[in-house]
């Protein structure tokens, strides 16, 4: 991936432009920084940085063809978001793949989504719920042998749509954040057999929303996304094998950011 952060050409053009256009180089730099952030975050989400690995800033900057200053800004942001830690002596360190931490994130997600479905039950229109049902019914036609990546994208699209139907942007941001931090584990989980249950559980959630059965929804969500610590430990054991045997296994690069929306046709 190539990142061009050189604004010399843009600066020269500004000499012949009206001062009202002076925002353009800054906008271009922001776009490059956003692209860099997306690329490095995707690497962290997929555990391309092995758990506990020291991030070699010089090598990473060379690999991405950027200077260390914008890269360090990105690494600092990812540290705030929980993807990295920092040591005085070692610099930035990749997050651990820790069962207790992942379990905590699953518990948080369950509580968060219980609030989301309650709000969506009260605020979603009948037309929106009809659209969501249509999305779920199309998703049920997805072949059982589809890539885990595709199935996970469909699942995340369903849950993010529920968050948007809550009419609460904080719910949306919080769900996007926790989804990113458990994305790799959920991808492994989907490969191990969750694919056969997901869409049926989605349909039961939609049916409860259509009935406006606000009391039934939290239990349905918890049954759908809840995981015990021992289940997470088993998934993580497989995750470690995937991380350290990528040359022989399906590459983690096959786990992109979700680009599916429940409001669009597949």
From TrEMBL:
<keyword id="KW-0238">DNA-binding</keyword>
<dbReference type="GO" id="GO:0003700">
    <property type="term" value="F:DNA-binding transcription factor activity"/>
</dbReference>
<feature type="domain" description="HTH gntR-type">
    <location>
        <begin position="30"/>
        <end position="97"/>
    </location>
</feature>
<protein>
    <submittedName>
        <fullName>HTH-type transcriptional repressor RspR</fullName>
    </submittedName>
</protein>
<dbReference type="InterPro" id="IPR008920">
    <property type="entry name" value="TF_FadR/GntR_C"/>
</dbReference>
<dbReference type="GO" id="GO:0003677">
    <property type="term" value="F:DNA binding"/>
</dbReference>
<dbReference type="InterPro" id="IPR036388">
    <property type="entry name" value="WH-like_DNA-bd_sf"/>
</dbReference>
<dbReference type="Pfam" id="PF00392">
    <property type="entry name" value="GntR"/>
</dbReference>
<keyword id="KW-0804">Transcription</keyword>
<keyword id="KW-0805">Transcription regulation</keyword>
<dbReference type="InterPro" id="IPR000524">
    <property type="entry name" value="Tscrpt_reg_HTH_GntR"/>
</dbReference>
<dbReference type="InterPro" id="IPR036390">
    <property type="entry name" value="WH_DNA-bd_sf"/>
</dbReference>
<dbReference type="Pfam" id="PF07729">
    <property type="entry name" value="FCD"/>
</dbReference>
<dbReference type="InterPro" id="IPR011711">
    <property type="entry name" value="GntR_C"/>
</dbReference>
């Amino acid at each position: 991936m190539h990142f061009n952060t050189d604004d010399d050409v843009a600066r020269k053009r500004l000499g012949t432009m009206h001062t009202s256009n002076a925002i353009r180089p800054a906008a271009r730099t922001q776009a490059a920084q956003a692209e860099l952030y997306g690329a490095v975050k995707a690497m962290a989400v997929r555990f391309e940085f092995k758990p506990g690995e020291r991030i070699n800033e010089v090598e990473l900057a060379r690999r991405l063809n950027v200077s260390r200053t914008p890269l360090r800004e990105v690494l600092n942001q990812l540290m705030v978001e929980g993807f990295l830690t920092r040591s005085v002596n070692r610099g930035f360190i990749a997050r651990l793949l820790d069962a207790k931490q992942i379990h905590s994130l699953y518990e948080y997600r369950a509580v968060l989504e219980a609030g989301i479905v309650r709000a969506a039950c009260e605020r979603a229109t009948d037309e929106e719920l009809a659209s969501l049902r249509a999305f779920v019914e199309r998703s049920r036609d997805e072949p059982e042998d589809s890539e885990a990546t595709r199935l996970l994208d469909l699942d995340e699209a369903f849950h993010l749509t529920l968050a948007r139907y809550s009419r609460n942007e904080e719910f949306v941001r919080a769900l996007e954040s926790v989804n990113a931090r458990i994305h790799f584990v959920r991808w492994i989980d989907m490969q191990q057999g969750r694919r056969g249950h997901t869409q049926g559980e989605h349909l039961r959630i939609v049916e409860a929303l259509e009935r406006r059965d606000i009391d039934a929804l939290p239990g349905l969500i918890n049954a759908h996304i809840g995981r015990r610590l021992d289940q997470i430990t088993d998934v993580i054991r497989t995750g470690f094998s995937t991380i350290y045997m990528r040359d022989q296994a399906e590459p983690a690069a096959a786990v992109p950011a979700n680009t599916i929306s429940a409001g669009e046709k597949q």
